[in-house]
Amino acid sequence: MKNIFTFLFVCAVSLTAFSQWSEDFEGDISGTWMLDAAWVQGTSAEIASAYYEPPATSKFISVNDDGAGAGVDLSGLAISPLVEVPADMNAVTFKYYFINGDWQNDDETAKVYISTDGGANFTEIANLEQSQSGGSVNWADGFASVADYAGQEVHIAFGYDDGQGWNYGFSVDDVTFDNVAANIVSIASASSSCLESTFSGNTVDGLINITNTGVAALNEIELTVSVNGDTEVVTVSGLDVAPLSGSTRIDLEDIITASSTTSNVSVEITGVNGGTENGSSETSASFSVTGYDLAENRGVFVEEATGTWCTWCPRGGAFMDLLKECFQDHFIGVAVHNNDPMADNAYDSGLGGLISGYPSAVFERVDIVDPSALIAPVLARAQEPAPAVLRGGVQAGTTDFTLSVEIQANVDMDGTYRVLGVITEDGVTGTSSGYAQVNAYSGSGAPYPLDWYSNQPSPVPASEMVYNEVGRALIGGFAGESTTISISAGEVFTHHFAGISLPNTIQNLDNVYVNFVLMDGAGNVINAWKQSYQETLDYVLSAEETVINVESVKVTPNPTSADAVLTMTLEQSSDVSVEVLDVTGKLVSNTVMTNQNGVVTVPVSTNGFVNGMYFVNVKAGNTVVT
Asked: CB–CB of 457/502 below 8 Å?
């Protein structure tokens, strides 16, 4: 136990011990309680401020650090009169309201102390967590063990410390002695690891949030779990959940295999610490999850705007990870970082032109939504049949290569389309401060999937952070490369990107993915797909008549301030079309040459061009090179 010492108010503390003591703070306490200057008595309406608003109740005592403003130290104690701990009581109980917000990483604390020497010395008996009721910050029951002080005359004190910063506050009401059961273990909430929706056949976990408000530590719990009527008993040992206000999450791995018939799950606590005694009335919970039949080869493309500097961006990362787990190959996610070590400037600039703030999610290049609202649209789009199947392969090299995308049509395709490639990497870590994630959810009590961040400081140290789906490079520019496709259902069109090199920021090729996106001429996503880097290297492209030697296509000089020349080698006779497009996909010039073979030279006039970047599409037979 930690000892603290104070000599405040010692000469004024009452020396008459109260028996059968309780305090609801409705009357005048000036002759009994000693309040440091930080503490006041009043109602919520009298005490509340912009960011510290205890829910309405009767009178209570409180420190409002928020209301005092920046630079004001409101740390201090509220000391009870001298009271006798009844021999048959083991706890002091109370109601309390404590956000535990730690604004700007200044650690605010709310503690309970006891003194046996008239207030000369105080010993800490409880360090309070955030007060919660019904899953949100609210008035909650608090306890502190006084079992070691039965029959003694003591002062109880409540202490607040703002961490030398501008924080929130601490409020206390309805203080009394009580006999608290050794085991009071409750289920605070329960859900599947995919919340309510996933794909048929996916196995998902049950996540059971447990609280322990008894005076004994929780070391073992027995849960009776029923899935659609099939029941099993699960015993979880090796726990170390603190008494009085401890909590933990128990993960029941792979308890559900999702199907189109909704799986209904119920969980009940049937044993605690090797016995059945449990003083809680909140020992059961239920939840459900449904599996959906997702369309074959359908991928849903989502770009998340994020940054390690962004206080609310943990929300984006948490929901992107959830979607990746619950929709797997059907979720094509990219985390586009801004102003941190993982930022790709071209990608960041392109996405930044579509959003108004961080975090944001760009859904299929059509809608801008909050990352927490992605589940419903992703699920709906993933059930729509894929108009075309996308697969990719390389023609040469391993880290320097020519990437090709096969577009296997399920419907007739005739018109202008855009093709985009994105290199992403999972498992990205770093040691510099730029990899530490600022975290507004610290101490918030936020539910899954943000509960991990709730239990982390702000910023989360770089050593604790692992970043997934990090956008490493664009292939074809942010808008993708424009190409003309005219094929019937069942036919295959192959688009060849120019030669590329993997960026040197990549940490592990085993964690790299190649993502392909097919868009219509207006930039709306038609379909998307992803492959691991190794799958892309191994993929065998469909047999096609090789008309253009892809490696031979060159534009010289490049860049140029005058006319240029495009050269290529044709493997067989063919008509050749050379299109020049600006970055918006607008056709600037088009040259058609008939019955060409061998080395072909095509003059490219830049007359009338404005300064900028242009794409050149070369088409011969059914082969297009950009």
From this structure: no
